[in-house]
Design goal:
The complex is a heterodimer of chains A (312) and B (837). Chain A is of the alpha/beta class and 312 residues long. Chain A has 2 domains: 3-51 and 117-306, TIM Barrel (Alpha-Beta Barrel), CATH 3.20.20.70; 54-114, Alpha-Beta Plaits (2-Layer Sandwich), CATH 3.30.70. Chain A has 12 helices and 12 strands. Chain A has helices at 3-8, 71-74, 101-105, 120-128, 131-137, 152-164, 179-185, 201-208, 213-225, 245-255, 273-278, 294-306; strands spanning 10-20, 28-33, 54-57, 80-83, 86-89, 111-114, 116-119, 141-144, 169-173, 191-195, 231-237, 261-267. In chain A, the strands form 3 sheets. In chain A, strands 7-1-2-8-9-10-11-12 form an 8-stranded mixed β-sheet. A two-stranded antiparallel sheet of chain A has the order 3-6. In chain A, strand 9, helix 7 (179-185) and strand 10 form a beta-alpha-beta unit. Chain A starts with a helix and ends in a 6-residue tail after the last helix. With 837 residues, chain B is of the alpha/beta class. Chain B has a domain at 15-123 and 196-479: Alpha-Beta Barrel (Anaerobic Ribonucleotide-triphosphate Reductase Large Chain). Chain B is built from 34 helices and 16 strands. In chain B, strand 4 (384-387), helix 18 and strand 5 (418-422) form a beta-alpha-beta unit. Classes of the chains: A alpha/beta (312), B alpha/beta (837).
Chain lengths: 312, 837
């Protein structure tokens, strides 16, 4: 594909976040894309799961219809009404709405649209704004999601074009994509952040909705076919799902013997809860929390099992 | 006079709130550094939490002498007054202190008075001081009586402030003051020259360490002997100046020796052999310095301290006298002693920290309400500069540089105001140490950028050697101590008021029908964005005219009221030309003045909202906007939200930043055109201390959704909570609103908030270093971090609108803090607490 084609390629993006410092080397900008083959119970970006733009409502920011009613006439289906001093939204037709005009009308960012079709050119214009920070820090662009490789053509065009512009790239992937996609993307990636959520496929299915066979086979192929590519394997340590040390040992064993792998255990957090509410969804994890220190122990056990020299 | 009511400012991170917090924390809690710093912790324990006491001795002896010397040359009168003070001021030796020299007799936290500044209302102020809300102080009834009867009456009709008030033309006066007497600030085009004798300053301390005051005195005496007896200039101008240098040299030497005698007296009564030996050693040193050159580290520190304290007695220097490049001028003594094995790091640090304790006890007291409002909460900026480059342009860091950083981490108070110079080749070892210190020390040191300051100063009149040897002075300014000669406080100009006047035909809601500005047309008649822009520009230009005319008059009036013989004795050009440093123009000098741009973010965001909503998208009419603002947005919340959703400065958004650059350009072009005829660089600066709060108190609702009387945006920072794209965007907006092609700019203050999580661990430090290096690349002037603590996060929870910009960064996740529910915020706050920061 030529640069002209790549620049015009579009994808559904729901956020471009600057100064991200936990998602690859240096100071980075994350491009969050929509759509994910998994539906993890603990997902902290529930707005990423669907491929389409989505309407959401943050009642905390609404000024109240008594003071502001920009949204009411904007809805093409007449689904927004004022009732008892609050907004009442019938979301049954939002899924088929093309315009999501209510979000554009809302001055308070109370009605939100998650996701917008954007060209590679447009996305990289924003990403390139911080390029001086990337050159100083060894940072760059991280594509994340959702599963960023799900929108395959867009992801590849974005990575190719970033490479042309000498912007370093990384991906945060769940690994649950056809091997060919990963294989095609890898040459354009400086770093790969690869999630391993559970070594047991049934448990994996319970937690994420899908088995782990493709994920683990992709990981193995990736490590073996691209032995010089730095891969950071990460596990979100989720209470009641994978927070036992037996699981940690099993993950450690998967990684044993690969020189290009580093590992990070990420402690469970509930910071995405609010967004479930905005989307009108229940948060599947409820009130559980991860006791302090568990993620640290998990990390230590994985590192020990995989034979990593942690003094490095 | 009414005290100025204050809002609680949160934007300008001056030291005091943090200082207070640390004071509080210490109560009942043993600090982890206590055991290694027992002496200074014990010294601090004696005054922590104390309300400062006013010490009247300086004011009394100064006044007594000035009464007797009327009619003589001012510099000579000042020197004689200093001699009178040196001879009579009580000298005390503080238990446990290793340094001698205080600007007042009262042990503990104290402030002193400068009646030559505010004597005309000193009596009223002294009455109100103990009860005022901001920076209160106590005074004994006996001392209050001395102020009322012996000090204040003499100064009525003689102060600089009264002279300035009379000298301002009517059109400038009405933008400066509300009342005829000039006691109530207008907070539109404010003068700041009357609440301090000088703006921030740095002495060439090295001169004293190397030559001693006997050396300086000998030079003056030789020059006196060589004066042409027939030359009227030599006899009438140079002679009194040189005589003043001789007198002031004798005065500081006498003062030091009185301390030596006192130390011997106390030693004789001391039974503890260790303390006795300390006191005798202190006495020996004070008998030697600052008269003679220092020969070791201890003598150098003591000599500098005497100069610094005598300087505080000499005059009220704005923001407290700065300390210059301490890691440079102390280094030869440090190295020599360390190599000889007669000094340890711990001993050196203890001496320095004895100095920090002395600084912490001295309160920079502002008597006038303006001064108090500008410098809230005992603010102080006695900048100690470290790092940077040598006169040769190579990296200047040394072992002592790192010792200052270590002390900043371990010393429990925010003294001194540590400033780290950074340049393109600053070594990683240094920047990592700086970054670690920022993480552990609540954001200090502040950073100053050689890549901006050095070329700018070279182009404004310094040699490259002088520019490379600059020292941070005060909050963000910098000085070349033997080239700079400018001492007049500059105007603080409220451009948010200019914006309000553009929308109210030259009037302000606060001041009713008074026609303060230009009667620009009714904004409802504006057809295009150009009409709006031109109305604003007309008001901005009026303000600039007032700013510059005011400053010109200030520079002329001040020289008749202030002198500083000691400061002048330490300045090459003053000595060469026999002119006091307060002289309006000193040959070969570089006059780096500045005026303050108040409300940069407020004005940009307001204009961007009008441009976009009224003229481009036409979503609202001007009439609707004005009506909403008239009602302070009450009942018009939808419009308020709409304007708030427009492009804002601080987000690397070209829509807003281009307006910012145009506004800045009007200022720098005005300065370029009119500075030369005044003989000064009256350049634009963005450093408000805490004054964006009182200036906000006169500005009604602004089109960026800000409610009436709320603080303006601070320095070159974004409006409250408007910067939602993170710290890289804040830096880039700053960069993109500067006019690098012109040189008529001074400092820009920039504060950035970080959550502890984002700088966690070694990788966090590394990213902080990378961030600092990028800031250096961008040639931005100043940077200070505020690594947020739990308390701030709790405050954010209570007042979410102000903290829209608080960025949460967790792997693979994005959200702003205030979008989180209180429950989740608590979660995050709890996590922060585990960060061990």
């Amino acid at each position: 594909m030529s640069t002209f084609d790549d620049r015009k390629t579009t994808g559904v993006v729901f956020n471009i976040q600057k100064y991200s410092v936990h998602d690859g080397p240096g100071i980075r900008t994350i491009v969050f894309t929509k759509g994910c083959p998994l539906s993890c119970r603990w997902c902290s970006n529930p707005e990423s799961q669907s491929l389409r733009p989505q309407m959401a409502f943050n009642p905390g920011r609404c000024i109240s219809p008594a003071k502001c009613d920009f949204c009411i006439p904007s809805c093409p289906y007449g689904s927004i009404r004022a009732e008892n001093g609050a907004l009442s939204i019938d979301c049954s037709r939002c899924a088929e709405c093309e315009s999501i005009a209510c979000a554009a009308a809302c001055p308070a960012q109370s009605l939100i649209v998650y996701g917008k079709s954007r060209t590679v050119e447009d996305v990289l214009r924003v990403v390139a704004q911080d390029s001086i920070f990337y050159s100083r820090s060894g940072g760059g662009m991280t594509i994340s999601g959702g599963e960023p490789l799900l929108q395959k053509e867009f992801a590849l065009a974005l990575l190719r074009e970033a490479r042309r512009r000498r912007i370093k790239t990384a991906v945060e992937t769940c690994g649950c994509v056809p091997w060919e996609t990963l294989e095609e993307a890898a040459p354009y990636l400086n770093n790969i952040l690869f999630d391993v959520k559970h070594p047991d496929t049934e448990r994996h299915r319970w937690g994420t909705g899908v088995g782990n066979e493709l994920i683990l086979s992709n990981l193995k192929k990736l490590l073996e076919n691209f032995p010089d590519k730095p891969v950071l394997v990460r596990t979100p340590v989720i209470p009641g799902f994978n927070d036992d040390m037996e699981t940690a040992r099993a993950i450690g064993r998967l990684l044993r013997g690969y020189a290009n792998v580093s590992y990070e255990a990420l402690p469970y957090h509930r910071l995405g809860t609010q967004k479930y509410m905005f989307l009108g969804r229940e948060y599947p994890m409820g009130e559980v929390s991860l006791p302090a220190g568990v993620a640290g122990r998990f990390q230590a056990v994985v590192d020990e099992e995989r034979g990593a020299d942690r003094s490095l | 006079m009414s005290a100025i009511e204050m809002l609680n400012p949160e934007a300008c991170e001056c030291h005091s709130p943090q200082e207070q917090r640390i004071f509080d924390e210490q109560k009942g809690k043993k600090d982890k550094y206590y055991d290694t710093h027992a002496r200074v912790f014990d010294l601090i324990a004696k005054f922590e939490g104390q309300t400062p006491v006013i010490d009247v001795e300086r004011a009394l002896y100064f006044t007594q002498s000035m009464k007797k010397t009327e009619g003589q040359p001012l510099v000579l009168r000042w020197a004689k007054a200093l001699m009178h003070i040196a001879r009579n001021m009580t000298v005390e030796v503080e238990d446990g202190q290793l340094l001698l020299g205080r600007a007042g007799a009262k042990i503990g936290r104290y402030g002193i008075l400068y009646p030559e500044l505010d004597g005309d209302f000193l009596d009223i102020a002294v009455r109100d001081l103990p009860t005022r809300e901001q920076s209160p102080a106590t005074i004994s009834p006996e001392d209050a009586k001395i102020v009322m009867e012996e000090i204040a009456p003499y100064w009525k009709g003689k102060t600089y402030h009264e002279a300035l008030n009379k000298a301002l033309p009517e059109w400038v006066h009405k933008l400066t003051y509300v009342d005829d007497e000039g006691l109530i600030s207008r907070f539109v085009v404010n003068e700041t020259s009357s609440f301090r004798s000088s703006i921030q300053w740095v002495h060439d301390y090295e001169k004293v360490l190397k030559r001693g005051f006997n050396g300086i005195k000998a030079e003056a005496e030789a020059r006196l002997a060589a004066l042409d007896p027939a030359s009227p200039v030599d006899q009438a101008d140079k002679r009194p100046f040189l005589e003043a240098v001789v007198i002031v040299s004798d005065a500081i030497i006498l003062w030091a020796r009185r301390y030596a005698a006192k130390a011997r007296e106390v030693a004789a009564l001391t039974t503890d052999p260790v303390r006795k030996a300390e006191l005798l050693n202190m006495a020996r040193i004070a008998e030697k310095v600052p008269a003679e050159p220092a020969d070791n580290f201890y003598e150098a520190v003591q000599s500098q301290w005497f100069v610094q304290m005598f300087s505080r007695i000499e005059q009220k220097t704005g923001t407290t006298i700065s300390n210059g490049r301490m890691d440079q001028y102390f280094y030869p003594y440090y190295k020599k002693d360390m190599e000889a094995g007669v000094l340890t790091e711990e001993k050196a640090m203890e001496l320095l920290e004895c100095m920090w304790v002395g600084m912490a006890e001295f309160i920079d007291m502002y008597i006038s309400p303006q001064g108090g409002a500008f410098n809230e909460g005992y603010a102080h900026w006695e900048a100690v500069t470290i790092g940077g480059q040598t006169k040769d342009g190579v990296d200047a860091t040394n072992e002592l540089t790192h010792l200052f950083l270590r002390s900043k981490r371990e010393f429990p108070l925010h003294y001194p105001d540590l400033a780290a110079r950074v340049h393109a080749l600053s070594p990683d070892e240094y920047l990592w140490d700086v970054a670690e210190t920022i993480k552990y020390g609540s954001g200090f040191p502040k950073l100053c950028n050689d890549e901006e300051v050095v070329p700018l100063y070279a182009s404004k009149g310094g040699t490259f050697e002088e520019a490379l040897d600059y020292a941070v002075s005060g909050c963000t300014e910098t000085r070349m101590p033997n080239r700079d000669t400018y001492t007049s406080g500059g105007a603080y100009t409220n451009f948010a008021a200019a914006l309000e006047m553009a929308l109210r035909q030259g009037k302000m809601k606060k001041y009713g029908d008074e026609q303060l500005g230009i009667a620009t047309p009714d904004p409802r008649t504006f057809k295009t964005w150009d009409d709006m822009w031109n109305a604003y520009k007309a008001q901005q230009e009026l303000f600039l005219r007032a700013t510059f005319t005011q400053q010109y008059i200030v520079t002329k009036v001040r020289a008749e009221h202030f002198a500083q013989p000691m400061g002048s004795a330490l300045h090459d050009l003053c000595m060469k030309h026999c002119l006091d440093l307060h002289t309006r123009l000193i040959p070969e000098g570089a006059n780096f003045g500045y005026f303050e741009f108040m409300g940069f973010g407020t004005v940009i965001d307001s204009l961007a909202a009008i441009k976009k909503l009224v003229f481009e998208e036409k979503r609202i009419t001007m009439d609707q906007l004005l009506e909403a603002m008239d009602h302070n947005w009450v009942g018009y919340e939808a419009i308020q939200q709409l304007v708030k959703s427009c492009p804002c400065y601080g987000n690397d958004d070209p829509y807003a930043d281009e307006i910012g650059k145009a506004i800045d350009r009007i200022c720098v072009e005005f300065a370029q055109k009119y500075s030369p005829e005044m003989g000064i660089n009256n350049d634009v600066r963005y450093v408000p201390f805490t004054s964006h709060v009182p200036f906000g108190k006169v500005v009604s609702a602004t089109p960026n959704g800000r409610t009436e009387w709320f603080p303006l945006s601070d320095g070159s920072s974004a409006s409250h909570g408007a910067d939602v794209n993170g710290p890289t965007a804040i830096l880039l907006s700053n960069y993109k609103t500067k006019n690098y092609g012109l040189r008529n700019r001074a400092a820009r203050l920039l504060n950035i908030k970080f959550t502890p999580k984002s700088v966690e661990g070694d990788s966090g430090t590394e990213k902080l270093v990378q961030f600092i290096r990028t800031w250096c690349d961008l040639k931005l002037w100043h940077l200070q971090f505020n690594v947020l603590n739990q308390e701030t996060l709790l405050a954010a929870q209570k007042d979410p609108q102000k903290y829209r910009n608080l960025i949460v960064r967790v792997a693979g996740y994005s959200a702003y803090f205030v979008d989180l529910s209180p429950d989740l915020q608590n979660d995050l706050i709890a996590r922060t607490d585990h960060d061990d920061l």
